[in-house]
Amino acid sequence: MKRENEFYKNGMLYYSVTGFRKVTGRSYSFIRQRIKDGIIHTEKEYYGVNQERTIIPYTEIDVLKEWEESKKRERIEGYLSAIKGSYTEDVFTKKEVSEKLNVTVSTIERYIRDGKLETVWIDSPRTDKIQMRVIPASELDRVLKNRKDQFQKLKKTVIEKAISRGISSMIQVSGGER
User: 123: which strand partners?
Assistant: First the structure.
C-alpha cells in the first residue's frame, strides 16, 4: 500500500524528506544536516513544470541506522578511554565482562541485580549528568576465581561419587575456563 510521501522509481521505493522523517522518527533539521554531511544519499526528482523535490532511497534508512550505531560506539569508547585513564584500576563494561565470562549481557545484568557482581558508578568525563556503570578488574578476577573453584569442587565431587560407587573404569573430567 502506497503511503503519502512514498514514491516508486524504477521499481525502488523512495521517500520525500518528510516521509523519511516520519519513517525514521528523526527531525527535519537532523535529516537535512545528515544530507549536508553526505551521510544520507539523495536524488532529485523533477515533476510537473519546472518543479523538483529531494527524494531519499529506502536503503538509506539502514545507512542512517549504521551511522547512528557507529556514533554511539565511538561515544562509548571515548567515555571508556577517558574513564579508564582517570580511574586507578582497570574497568570493564558489561559487554566486555560478558565476553570474558562467555555469558550474555542479560546474565551479567542479573548477576549485578542479585549482588553476585559488584559495580561502580563513574561520572562521564564529558558531562556531570551521565554516569556509567563499570566492573572493576578486581571484581572480574574474583568472579573468575569463584568459577574455577566451583569447577574444582564439582570435579572432586564427581570423582568421589564414582569411587564410592565402585566404578573401576578410568574417569576423565575435562573443562575449565571458557
Answer: 131
